[in-house]
Protein backbone atom coordinates (compact mmCIF):
# COMPACT_ATOMS: atom_id res chain seq x y z
CA UNK A 1 0.00 0.00 0.00
CA UNK A 2 1.26 3.50 -0.84
CA UNK A 3 2.38 5.47 2.21
CA UNK A 4 0.98 8.99 2.51
CA UNK A 5 2.45 11.71 4.68
CA UNK A 6 -0.63 13.50 5.98
CA UNK A 7 -0.81 17.30 5.55
CA UNK A 8 2.67 17.15 4.02
CA UNK A 9 2.68 20.44 2.09
CA UNK A 10 0.99 22.45 4.84
CA UNK A 11 3.19 21.20 7.69
CA UNK A 12 6.42 21.79 5.73
CA UNK A 13 5.38 25.20 4.39
CA UNK A 14 4.46 26.43 7.88
CA UNK A 15 7.86 25.37 9.27
CA UNK A 16 9.25 28.30 7.21
CA UNK A 17 12.48 26.38 6.59
CA UNK A 18 15.87 28.15 6.39
CA UNK A 19 18.55 26.66 4.11
CA UNK A 20 21.12 26.53 6.92
CA UNK A 21 18.72 25.61 9.72
CA UNK A 22 18.78 22.80 12.27
CA UNK A 23 15.56 20.77 12.12
CA UNK A 24 14.14 17.82 14.04
CA UNK A 25 11.59 15.33 12.72
CA UNK A 26 10.38 13.57 15.85
CA UNK A 27 8.44 10.97 13.86
CA UNK A 28 10.61 9.75 10.97
CA UNK A 29 8.32 6.92 9.80
CA UNK A 30 9.05 6.32 6.11
CA UNK A 31 10.73 9.75 5.77
CA UNK A 32 7.89 11.53 3.96
CA UNK A 33 8.28 14.74 5.96
CA UNK A 34 12.01 14.24 6.57
CA UNK A 35 12.69 14.04 2.81
CA UNK A 36 10.96 17.35 2.20
CA UNK A 37 12.83 19.04 5.05
CA UNK A 38 16.19 17.67 3.86
CA UNK A 39 15.62 18.99 0.31
CA UNK A 40 15.29 22.49 1.75
CA UNK A 41 18.36 22.57 4.03
CA UNK A 42 21.47 22.04 1.86
CA UNK A 43 23.55 23.97 4.42
CA UNK A 44 21.69 22.76 7.51
CA UNK A 45 21.17 19.49 9.35
CA UNK A 46 18.24 17.19 10.08
CA UNK A 47 17.88 15.04 13.19
CA UNK A 48 15.11 12.44 12.92
CA UNK A 49 13.80 10.16 15.68
CA UNK A 50 11.97 6.85 15.52
CA UNK A 51 11.48 4.00 18.00
CA UNK A 52 11.04 1.58 15.12
CA UNK A 53 14.38 0.30 13.77
CA UNK A 54 12.61 -0.94 10.64
CA UNK A 55 11.50 2.64 9.87
CA UNK A 56 15.11 3.86 10.25
CA UNK A 57 16.46 1.08 8.02
CA UNK A 58 13.90 1.76 5.29
CA UNK A 59 14.39 5.54 5.40
CA UNK A 60 18.19 5.68 5.34
CA UNK A 61 18.70 5.10 1.60
CA UNK A 62 15.80 7.39 0.71
CA UNK A 63 17.41 10.25 2.62
CA UNK A 64 20.93 9.47 1.34
CA UNK A 65 19.62 10.04 -2.18
CA UNK A 66 18.94 13.66 -1.15
CA UNK A 67 21.99 14.42 0.98
CA UNK A 68 24.17 13.24 3.85
CA UNK A 69 23.45 16.11 6.26
CA UNK A 70 21.15 14.08 8.51
CA UNK A 71 21.32 11.97 11.66
CA UNK A 72 18.81 9.20 12.39
CA UNK A 73 18.24 8.44 16.07
CA UNK A 74 16.77 5.11 17.20
CA UNK A 75 14.82 6.50 20.14
CA UNK A 76 11.44 7.98 21.02
CA UNK A 77 11.00 11.72 20.62
CA UNK A 78 10.52 12.02 24.38
CA UNK A 79 14.34 11.64 24.53
CA UNK A 80 14.85 14.80 22.45
CA UNK A 81 16.70 16.68 25.21
CA UNK A 82 19.05 13.81 26.03
CA UNK A 83 19.83 12.92 22.42
CA UNK A 84 20.42 16.49 21.22
CA UNK A 85 22.54 17.29 24.28
CA UNK A 86 24.68 14.25 23.49
CA UNK A 87 25.30 15.70 20.02
CA UNK A 88 26.01 19.22 21.21
CA UNK A 89 22.84 20.71 19.70
CA UNK A 90 21.51 23.56 21.86
CA UNK A 91 19.05 25.37 19.56
CA UNK A 92 16.85 24.19 16.74
CA UNK A 93 15.03 26.10 14.01
CA UNK A 94 12.11 23.73 13.76
CA UNK A 95 10.45 20.61 15.12
CA UNK A 96 7.94 18.52 13.18
CA UNK A 97 5.76 15.83 14.75
CA UNK A 98 3.33 13.54 12.92
CA UNK A 99 1.75 11.76 15.88
CA UNK A 100 0.33 8.24 15.87
CA UNK A 101 0.99 4.95 14.14
CA UNK A 102 2.34 5.07 10.60
CA UNK A 103 0.49 3.28 7.81
CA UNK A 104 3.24 0.62 7.37
CA UNK A 105 2.90 -0.30 11.06
CA UNK A 106 -0.85 -0.71 10.68
CA UNK A 107 -0.45 -2.62 7.43
CA UNK A 108 2.06 -5.07 8.92
CA UNK A 109 -0.34 -7.56 10.50
CA UNK A 110 2.39 -9.09 12.66
CA UNK A 111 2.81 -5.84 14.60
CA UNK A 112 -0.61 -6.34 16.22
CA UNK A 113 -1.85 -2.76 15.79
CA UNK A 114 -4.82 -3.62 13.60
CA UNK A 115 -8.17 -4.90 14.80
CA UNK A 116 -8.83 -6.26 11.29
CA UNK A 117 -5.96 -8.77 11.08
CA UNK A 118 -5.15 -11.83 13.17
CA UNK A 119 -1.88 -11.37 15.05
CA UNK A 120 -0.38 -11.83 18.49
CA UNK A 121 -1.24 -8.90 20.77
CA UNK A 122 1.72 -6.55 20.51
CA UNK A 123 1.36 -2.85 19.49
CA UNK A 124 4.94 -1.92 20.43
CA UNK A 125 6.39 0.86 18.30
CA UNK A 126 9.80 -0.15 19.63
CA UNK A 127 10.17 -3.92 19.19
CA UNK A 128 12.97 -3.94 21.78
CA UNK A 129 10.55 -2.79 24.49
CA UNK A 130 9.45 -5.66 26.76
CA UNK A 131 5.98 -4.37 27.70
CA UNK A 132 3.36 -5.05 25.01
CA UNK A 133 -0.41 -5.20 24.57
CA UNK A 134 -0.26 -8.86 25.63
CA UNK A 135 1.00 -7.95 29.12
CA UNK A 136 -1.45 -5.07 29.43
CA UNK A 137 -4.52 -7.07 28.46
CA UNK A 138 -3.61 -10.10 30.56
CA UNK A 139 -2.03 -8.50 33.64
CA UNK A 140 -3.69 -5.13 34.29
CA UNK A 141 -6.28 -5.35 37.10
CA UNK A 142 -9.86 -4.32 36.32
CA UNK A 143 -9.48 -0.77 37.68
CA UNK A 144 -6.42 -0.11 35.56
CA UNK A 145 -8.04 -1.57 32.45
CA UNK A 146 -11.09 0.60 33.05
CA UNK A 147 -8.95 3.72 33.39
CA UNK A 148 -6.96 3.05 30.20
CA UNK A 149 -9.98 2.23 28.04
CA UNK A 150 -12.11 5.12 29.28
CA UNK A 151 -9.32 7.73 29.47
CA UNK A 152 -7.35 6.97 26.31
CA UNK A 153 -10.11 5.44 24.22
CA UNK A 154 -12.93 7.69 25.42
CA UNK A 155 -15.04 4.54 25.26
CA UNK A 156 -18.54 4.79 26.82
CA UNK A 157 -18.65 1.04 27.47
CA UNK A 158 -15.19 0.83 29.06
CA UNK A 159 -16.53 -0.76 32.24
CA UNK A 160 -18.33 -3.56 30.37
CA UNK A 161 -15.28 -4.21 28.15
CA UNK A 162 -12.89 -4.30 31.12
CA UNK A 163 -15.20 -6.77 32.93
CA UNK A 164 -15.37 -9.05 29.88
CA UNK A 165 -11.58 -9.04 29.54
CA UNK A 166 -11.20 -9.79 33.25
CA UNK A 167 -13.66 -12.72 33.07
CA UNK A 168 -12.26 -14.21 29.83
CA UNK A 169 -8.67 -14.36 31.03
CA UNK A 170 -9.70 -16.36 34.12
CA UNK A 171 -9.82 -19.41 31.85
CA UNK A 172 -6.97 -18.65 29.41
CA UNK A 173 -4.71 -15.78 28.37
CA UNK A 174 -5.92 -13.50 25.58
CA UNK A 175 -3.39 -14.17 22.83
CA UNK A 176 -4.46 -12.47 19.60
CA UNK A 177 -5.99 -9.31 18.18
CA UNK A 178 -9.07 -11.09 16.83
CA UNK A 179 -9.60 -12.84 20.16
CA UNK A 180 -9.64 -9.42 21.83
CA UNK A 181 -11.94 -8.01 19.15
CA UNK A 182 -14.51 -10.77 19.86
CA UNK A 183 -14.33 -10.07 23.61
CA UNK A 184 -14.91 -6.35 22.98
CA UNK A 185 -17.86 -7.12 20.70
CA UNK A 186 -19.40 -9.36 23.35
CA UNK A 187 -19.43 -6.41 25.77
CA UNK A 188 -21.26 -4.01 23.45
CA UNK A 189 -25.00 -3.64 22.84
CA UNK A 190 -26.43 -4.39 19.39
CA UNK A 191 -27.11 -0.69 18.64
CA UNK A 192 -23.36 0.01 18.96
CA UNK A 193 -22.33 -3.04 16.93
CA UNK A 194 -24.64 -1.93 14.12
CA UNK A 195 -23.14 1.55 13.95
CA UNK A 196 -20.66 2.65 11.27
CA UNK A 197 -17.05 2.18 12.32
CA UNK A 198 -15.25 -0.74 13.94
CA UNK A 199 -16.44 -1.55 17.49
CA UNK A 200 -12.91 -2.26 18.71
CA UNK A 201 -11.32 0.95 17.40
CA UNK A 202 -11.45 2.96 20.63
CA UNK A 203 -10.21 0.14 22.84
CA UNK A 204 -7.31 -0.66 20.50
CA UNK A 205 -6.40 3.03 20.41
CA UNK A 206 -6.40 3.14 24.20
CA UNK A 207 -4.19 0.07 24.55
CA UNK A 208 -1.74 1.37 21.94
CA UNK A 209 -1.43 4.73 23.71
CA UNK A 210 -0.76 3.04 27.06
CA UNK A 211 1.73 0.50 25.66
CA UNK A 212 3.78 3.26 24.02
CA UNK A 213 3.25 5.93 26.70
CA UNK A 214 2.22 8.26 23.87
CA UNK A 215 0.57 11.16 25.68
CA UNK A 216 3.31 11.66 28.28
CA UNK A 217 5.89 11.41 25.49
CA UNK A 218 4.02 14.09 23.49
CA UNK A 219 4.00 16.48 26.46
CA UNK A 220 7.73 15.88 27.00
CA UNK A 221 8.79 16.51 23.39
CA UNK A 222 6.64 19.64 23.06
CA UNK A 223 8.10 21.20 26.21
CA UNK A 224 11.66 20.29 25.18
CA UNK A 225 11.25 21.37 21.55
CA UNK A 226 9.61 24.70 22.37
CA UNK A 227 12.35 25.58 24.87
CA UNK A 228 15.07 24.85 22.28
CA UNK A 229 13.61 26.98 19.48
CA UNK A 230 15.75 29.79 18.11
CA UNK A 231 14.03 33.13 17.45
CA UNK A 232 11.81 32.62 14.41
CA UNK A 233 11.84 28.85 14.92
CA UNK A 234 8.62 26.83 14.71
CA UNK A 235 6.98 23.68 16.03
CA UNK A 236 4.61 21.98 13.56
CA UNK A 237 2.41 19.17 14.96
CA UNK A 238 -0.07 16.85 13.23
CA UNK A 239 -2.44 14.93 15.50
CA UNK A 240 -5.11 12.32 14.79
CA UNK A 241 -7.39 12.27 17.80
CA UNK A 242 -8.82 14.66 20.37
CA UNK A 243 -6.57 13.65 23.28
CA UNK A 244 -3.40 14.51 21.36
CA UNK A 245 -4.87 17.68 19.87
CA UNK A 246 -5.94 18.89 23.32
CA UNK A 247 -2.40 18.45 24.66
CA UNK A 248 -0.90 20.40 21.74
CA UNK A 249 -3.56 23.11 22.00
CA UNK A 250 -3.08 23.55 25.76
CA UNK A 251 0.74 23.65 25.63
CA UNK A 252 0.76 26.09 22.70
CA UNK A 253 -1.74 28.26 24.59
CA UNK A 254 0.43 28.20 27.74
CA UNK A 255 3.43 29.52 25.83
CA UNK A 256 1.67 32.02 23.56
CA UNK A 257 -1.25 33.60 25.40
CA UNK A 258 -0.84 36.06 28.25
CA UNK A 259 -3.17 35.84 31.21
CA UNK A 260 -6.31 37.93 30.77
CA UNK A 261 -6.24 41.22 32.64
CA UNK A 262 -9.26 43.32 33.56
CA UNK A 263 -9.41 46.00 30.85
CA UNK A 264 -10.50 48.55 33.43
CA UNK A 265 -7.12 48.35 35.17
CA UNK A 266 -4.72 50.98 33.70
CA UNK A 267 -1.32 49.46 32.83
CA UNK A 268 1.91 50.99 31.58
CA UNK A 269 3.44 49.37 28.45
CA UNK A 270 6.15 47.64 30.50
CA UNK A 271 3.48 46.16 32.78
CA UNK A 272 1.74 44.32 29.95
CA UNK A 273 2.85 40.68 29.77
CA UNK A 274 4.40 39.81 26.41
CA UNK A 275 4.81 36.16 25.49
CA UNK A 276 7.87 34.91 23.60
CA UNK A 277 5.78 32.67 21.33
CA UNK A 278 2.78 33.05 19.04
CA UNK A 279 0.33 30.58 17.54
CA UNK A 280 0.50 30.62 13.76
CA UNK A 281 -2.71 28.56 13.72
CA UNK A 282 -5.34 29.72 16.22
CA UNK A 283 -7.60 27.09 14.64
CA UNK A 284 -6.13 23.80 13.38
CA UNK A 285 -5.51 23.28 9.68
CA UNK A 286 -7.40 20.33 8.18
CA UNK A 287 -6.79 18.30 5.04
CA UNK A 288 -8.26 19.62 1.78
CA UNK A 289 -10.72 17.73 -0.40
CA UNK A 290 -8.02 16.34 -2.71
CA UNK A 291 -6.07 14.79 0.16
CA UNK A 292 -9.23 13.48 1.81
CA UNK A 293 -10.17 11.64 -1.38
CA UNK A 294 -6.72 10.01 -1.59
CA UNK A 295 -6.10 9.11 2.04
CA UNK A 296 -8.78 8.23 4.59
CA UNK A 297 -6.34 8.74 7.52
CA UNK A 298 -6.42 12.47 6.71
CA UNK A 299 -10.02 12.83 7.90
CA UNK A 300 -9.05 13.12 11.56
CA UNK A 301 -5.76 15.00 11.06
CA UNK A 302 -5.23 18.44 12.61
CA UNK A 303 -2.17 20.65 12.18
CA UNK A 304 -1.10 23.29 14.71
CA UNK A 305 1.99 25.52 14.51
CA UNK A 306 3.78 27.65 17.12
CA UNK A 307 6.53 30.23 16.47
CA UNK A 308 9.12 31.83 18.75
CA UNK A 309 8.96 35.59 18.21
CA UNK A 310 11.51 36.95 20.70
TrEMBL record:
Keywords: Cytoplasm, Methyltransferase, rRNA processing, S-adenosyl-L-methionine, Transferase. Specifically methylates the N4 position of cytidine in position 1402 (C1402) of 16S rRNA. It comes from the Bacteria. It comes from Breznakia pachnodae. Pfam families: Methyltransf_5. S-adenosyl-L-methionine binds at residues 31-33, 50, 77, 98, 105. It is found in: Cytoplasm. SUPFAM superfamilies: Putative methyltransferase TM0872, insert domain (SSF81799), S-adenosyl-L-methionine-dependent methyltransferases (SSF53335). Its EC number is 2.1.1.199. GO terms for biological process: methylation. It catalyses: cytidine(1402) in 16S rRNA + S-adenosyl-L-methionine = N(4)-methylcytidine(1402) in 16S rRNA + S-adenosyl-L-homocysteine + H(+). NCBIfam families: 16S rRNA (cytosine(1402)-N(4))-methyltransferase RsmH (TIGR00006). InterPro entries: RsmH, SAM-dep_MeTrfase_MraW_recog, SAM-dependent_MTases_sf. This is Ribosomal RNA small subunit methyltransferase H. GO terms for molecular function: methyltransferase activity. Belongs to the methyltransferase superfamily. RsmH family. It is an enzyme of class 2 (transferase).
